[in-house]
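Message: I would love a firmer grasp of how sequence relates to backbone shape in proteins. Thank you; the sequence and its tokens follow:
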Amino acid sequence: MKITIAEVSKHVEEEVTMGVWLANKRSSGKIAFLQLRDGTGFIQGVVVKNDVEENVFQKAKSLSQETSLFITGVVQQDNRSKFGYELLVKNIEVIAEAKDYPITPKEHGTEFLMDHRHLWLRSRKQHAVMKIRNEIIRATYEFFNEKGFVKVDPPILTGSAPEGTSELFHTKYFDEDAYLSQSGQLYMEAAAMALGKVFSFGPTFRAEKSKTRRHLIEFWMIEPEMAFYSFKDSLEIQEQYVAYIVQSVLQNCPVELERLGRDISKLEKIKAPFPRITYDEAIQFLHKNGFDDIEWGDDFGAPHETAIAESHDKPIFITHYPTKIKPFYMEPDPNRPEVVLCADLIAPEGYGEIIGGSERIHDYELLKSRLEDHHLSMDAYKWYLELRKYGSVPHSGFGLGLERTVAWISGVEHVRETIPFPRLLNRLYP
């Protein structure tokens, strides 16, 4: 019977066959221990010299790292291992031998591992991070489907930019200018006017020359937009969503979190509601804590966000930023037009902003004046402006950066480990 490692609990004391790779091995006299993986998990295969034919035992001892195999054996419970099962090997069939595998159990530098990212993905740590990423994606679809949202796919090639073109990748679209999308938001607003509550999940691109541990050139975003939703309504959806994906990872990825050494007690506290402070209060807090360089009207950098986040054990909303430092489409506070109805959600433990969101301007004349103030093309944004012309309604939305969220939940230091093939300032290979 051919099974995967993930299925072994259903086949205790049964003889099974699995397609696997050899992650590592060790032997002690008459026993060989094979660390096996198949993509669904890891299991130890035990080859006892006296229980197998001599050629099988010799084959087990001579196997090289990452050689692919069909391996046959009996599944046994093993309370000594964290996985809980092992395979008592009966036979080994080599599919393809791997010679001189470059990533060995010794320490390697980051650049070396990034050059071999196509192979580094096979390691236990990277496997765990990718499984957590997958669980967050799965839980995202589950959450929004249960809330009645419709999945919509905005274009990746666009003729305009939601936040200006200074950080966009330019390309030629036949005889027109085009850009790789930095956000699907504007198109999602159009979709919300047709379908009510929508969300997208797709790649976005920022031509931002940043080398911090929080930045990627290509990353994935979840972007919901909601018709008839106020700024306050949107904050409630955001905190429910983030709490939901954290709890889903806790429930469904305990092995992966343990493998990464993640302190799950910190994640267990992530339940709605989340604390909220205004931008004004954040400035006051920073001044009291030695950040004399920040002034009202400045945007926050990583040190500022980290200091604010460290005062709480949950993500924290910073609301009502100055209008002048936020994009043109954000609704001004009716009681204080110098600030907008927006919020950034800052993750704990120094992982920075994971969500940016706002209520969107729904008044035609106000949006038109904002476009003019930002010197944006009326022709390029004609369709976007028309959303306010034909049955405009109050509406809100937000965008969650997947890789930063994966980094925070899994506890890894740098976002380059949270996407299969990261695109960084000086890295387009592999």
The chain has two domains: 5-96, 117-417. DSSP finds 13 helices and 18 strands in the chain. The radius of gyration is 26 Å. Residues 5-96 form a domain with the OB fold (Dihydrolipoamide Acetyltransferase, E2P) fold (CATH 2.40.50.140).
